């Protein structure tokens, strides 16, 4: 997922010009606690494409308009290679942990590290979603349709489980915030926060913070004209710290990862 969203779901394992991102946008205000936003994609390639799945602390619903490449991918703390990536033309939807619970009735922790068929969590709504989105006239219409459909899926009364965990999850996405600072600010012990995250998020607070920091750096530093000199502004001690973390989590150097991003800059016709 790329486009307007401050996160990156995956990249081809080898650079090629046939895979591009379509501009996306955030979800509407009503959905914001549950859905971060949407990003379109198009890949001009025959057959399966090996993709590097980057660390991400969101659950992603990939809706492929052709039907074969639709997947739900859970949050993950490290990169992996997906050998069966068949999504070619569609939209990616990023759900927060609260969104997974509210919209699908599934604890986000159960999907961490998993890749499943959307029908397993959405039932018949998965096929309906692909059909209606694929039939829409343009991307603006698709994003508006997603706002309407997902808002309709929300239960009338929904109180987020473990509100302190939810608040901590959001605060850890601010650059430079440490787990200890967030726990103290919410009046909870670090141990208590870790237990809450393990149960409701499926990842430790430290892992969430590392992944959020990496995604923020990719979003900010991967733009033309922006260099690694801004590593500190992204929450890293220095450029070396950023490079080590990117190698450990994404399996790529900053230069290699940003080179991949340049291949996604030009939207398809």
Top keywords for this entry?
18% strand; 269 residues; globular; alpha+beta; disordered N terminus; six-stranded antiparallel sheet; three-stranded antiparallel sheet
What's the arrangement of secondary structure elements?
Elements: E1 10-12, E2 19-26, E3 35-43, E4 49-53, E5 59-64, E6 71-73, E7 80-85, E8 89-95, H1 97-104, E9 115-116, H2 119-122, H3 125-135, H4 139-153, H5 163-171, H6 179-185, H7 190-200, H8 205-221, H9 239-250, H10 254-262
Antiparallel strand pairs: 1-4, 2-3, 3-8, 4-7, 5-6, 5-8, 6-9
Helix pairs in contact: 5-7, 8-9
Taken from the alpha-carbon principal axes, the silhouette is globular
Strand sequence of the main sheet, in spatial order?
2-3-8-5-6-9
In this structure, how is the largest beta sheet organized?
6 strands, antiparallel
For the secondary structure, the number of strands is 9
Number of helices: 10
Rounded to the nearest angstrom, the distance between the terminal CA atoms is 19 Å
Mean pLDDT, rounded to whole units? 86
Derived structural class: alpha+beta
Helix proportion of residues, in percent? 25-40%
Q: Can you walk through the features of this model?
A:
With 269 residues, this protein is of the alpha+beta class. 38% of the residues lie in helices and 18% in strands. It has helices at residues 97-104, 119-122, 125-135, 139-153, 163-171, 179-185, 190-200, 205-221, 239-250, 254-262; strands spanning 10-12, 19-26, 35-43, 49-53, 59-64, 71-73, 80-85, 89-95, 115-116. A 6-stranded antiparallel beta sheet has the order 2-3-8-5-6-9. Strands 1-4-7 form a 3-stranded antiparallel beta sheet, with no helix packed on it. A hairpin with a 6-residue loop joins β5 (59-64) and β6. α5 (163-171) crosses α7 (190-200). The two termini are 19 Å apart.
């Amino acid at each position: 997922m790329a486009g307007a969203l401050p996160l990156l779901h995956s990249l081809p394992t080898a650079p090629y010009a046939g895979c591009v991102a379509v501009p996306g946008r955030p979800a509407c205000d009503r959905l914001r606690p549950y859905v971060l936003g949407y990003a379109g994609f198009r890949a001009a390639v025959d057959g399966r494409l090996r993709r590097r799945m980057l660390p991400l602390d969101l659950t992603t619903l990939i809706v492929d308009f052709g039907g074969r490449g639709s997947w739900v991918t859970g949050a993950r703390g490290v990169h992996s290679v997906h050998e069966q990536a068949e999504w070619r033309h569609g939209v990616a939807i990023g759900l927060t942990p609260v969104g997974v619970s509210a919209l699908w009735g599934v604890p986000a922790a159960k999907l961490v590290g998993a890749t499943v068929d959307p029908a397993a969590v959405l039932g018949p709504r998965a096929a309906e979603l692909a059909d209606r989105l694929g039939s829409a006239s343009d991307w603006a219409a698709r994003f508006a349709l997603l706002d309407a459909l997902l808002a309709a899926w929300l239960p009338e009364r929904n109180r987020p489980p473990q509100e302190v965990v939810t608040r901590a999850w959001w605060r850890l996405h601010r650059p430079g915030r440490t787990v200890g600072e967030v726990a103290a600010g919410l009046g909870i012990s670090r141990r208590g926060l870790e237990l809450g995250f393990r149960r409701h998020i499926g990842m430790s607070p430290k892992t969430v913070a590392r992944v959020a920091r990496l995604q923020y750096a990719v979003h900010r530093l991967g733009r033309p004209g922006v260099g690694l000199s801004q590593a500190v502004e992204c929450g890293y001690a220095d450029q070396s710290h950023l490079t080590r973390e990117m190698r450990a989590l994404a399996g790529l150097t900053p230069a290699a990862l940003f080179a991949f991003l340049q291949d996604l800059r030009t939207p398809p016709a």
